[in-house]
Amino acid sequence: MKNLLTAREALEYLGVGKTQLIELIKNEKLPFVRISGYTRFRIQHLDKWIAERTSTVDDFPGVIDEIDKEIESSEIQAPARKKSTEPTVESPPELSVSKHFGIEEIRDDLCLTVFDNDRPEPVADEIKEVLGDIGIISKADGFIKEAIAAPGKPVRIGNVVHTFIDDINICVSEDKLKAYLYISPGATSANPASVLKALAETGIRHGLASTLIRAAGDKNIRGRLLVAACGSVPEPGGEARLTINFDTPRSFHPKSLESPDIDYSEFENISKVRKDQILAELIMPENARDGMNVYGETIKYKTGAQSLLRGGANTYFSEDKLRLHAAQEGVAYWKKNTICVDATQYLPEVGYDTGNIDFEGRVIIHENVRPGFSLTAGRKIIVKGHIEAAKVVSHISSIEIRGGIRGNRKALLVSKRNISAAFAERCHLHSGMNIVVESSIVGSEVYAAKSVKLTGENNRVVSSNITAGQSISVFAAGSPNHNKTVLKIQQPADDGSLSERLYLEKLIAELDNEIALTKQRIKRRAEQKSIAKKTEEKKLAALRKQIKQQEKALASFLQWTSDDERIFIDVAGIAHPGVEICIEDAAVEIRDPIENKRFYYYNGKIAVKDIPG
């Protein structure tokens, strides 16, 4: 403890109020020191001043009445372990530990007396609890049974233990909700003031039993175990309620939004949420009340309701853990008993009502993307109608057009992965992987890093430049009018393929390093016998799975860039005159119609054969 106290610390040390402290300085010559214009109190001086004024009841016969008034008005404040604004709650007037039994010293023996045996089992449990609090528990069952069997008869439970060797002893229960007082039978200085001092030294300040304190000088209470203070138990006040602020059915899953069968009208049953919107909230009982132990420390009431509120992907909790918010715009849904947000935006169309759309998640358009507008998304884009002379970009995923593309030479579609559409007219398509069109590609510039494939019966490519990194599959190419149509296989430029390979190799190296670090942490946790070892082991398993996937992707990439047998152009129907076939640096122009042919690269030239199978 520091030697110098501030005025506030001094009044707490002396257990008086501000007015009394001023009076003591003025009238009782309470010593103080001045330092740089501040008033401070030296602890040694205060202790000496107190010692000089120590008195007995003989010196002040009216002290009992004064103490009684102080207790009744709650003016006595013992030094607190923790500040609290809660009022002191007085325990019931009974002085005994329990109305069912008592513990007292009889001729140097500690004895247990049971007053009734109508409730033998609960009484036995209550006795065990109290004996545990005061340090007497070994071999308790035998004498408890004996005392219950002979109500009113004191049963010796042992000698007075070390807990009771002082004249005035305070013993606090393990849960800090009860403080027991024991005054030795031979005590000569036991009185209300000495009991209050003992309580203050122990830090007891809440739930003081004023009835007992006033009776501290009564010889009849000596040698008995009594309750000096009683804390208050927290009251949950009933069950908490969980309110949900979205209506999405529990059976809903975000993948169902991509279903071709789902109607836009059904979207009204799916909750669209804003960023930071409250998704769910725990409403705590209004009559809940915190408890307080005998030291004046608050005991927060507990409720299991927090387990009702569980947050998943794209959500976050408020600071008090009572509200769950959306971390981003999207669709709120249930995943088992967890609330999640799927980053999806869905609209009737993109046009004058919406303006241009730029969204980091998935976007679903029920109808069309109108001419002159743009649609950009971080994830997958699904358009259930048509794209009309508009710009559509998916940064990391695919573009799926359930209708077709009417480009008017102004439509541009760029996708990190795949592009699919019913047809494509006068547009520019650029895909990081595959392009799949059902019926026709007309007057368009098309590029796919892997493949371009037309799947419908009698599909055709006319007046278009089609470039793919691996394969092109069509039914008919060109037209009888000799419209120029180019089908070209060109592996990605060196800088592009090198970039992808380096990215995969860098990712694998980073995962390797993280796996090594995780193994070291697991070893340390094992040496420390820490429960965190299991968490690290789960992380290691996830890292191993991830690196396996990336190694597979790298192997697939390297095979694709080196395997010439997989590089081809198939024309399953007819290739009309005017069609130009290009593979790497070789090219051939079709001069006469040919059918069902595969064009492939062999010895630096383009070879032709029937399509296998």
This entry's quaternary arrangement is single chain
Q: Structural class, judged by helices and strands? A: alpha/beta
What can be said about the biggest beta sheet? 23 strands, mixed
For the termini, the CA-CA separation is 94 Å
Helix content: 10-25%
Global geometry: elongated
> How much strand content do the residues show?
25-35%
Radius of gyration: 43 Å
Précis, in short:
By secondary structure, the protein is an alpha/beta fold.
Please provide a written account of the structure.
The protein has 613 residues and is an alpha/beta fold. The strands form seven sheets. The protein has a 23-stranded mixed beta sheet that branches. A four-stranded antiparallel beta sheet has the order 10-12-16-15, with no helix packed on it. Strands 1-3-2 form a three-stranded antiparallel beta sheet. A hairpin with a 2-residue loop joins strand 2 (33-35) and strand 3 (38-42). 23% of the residues lie in helices and 32% in strands.
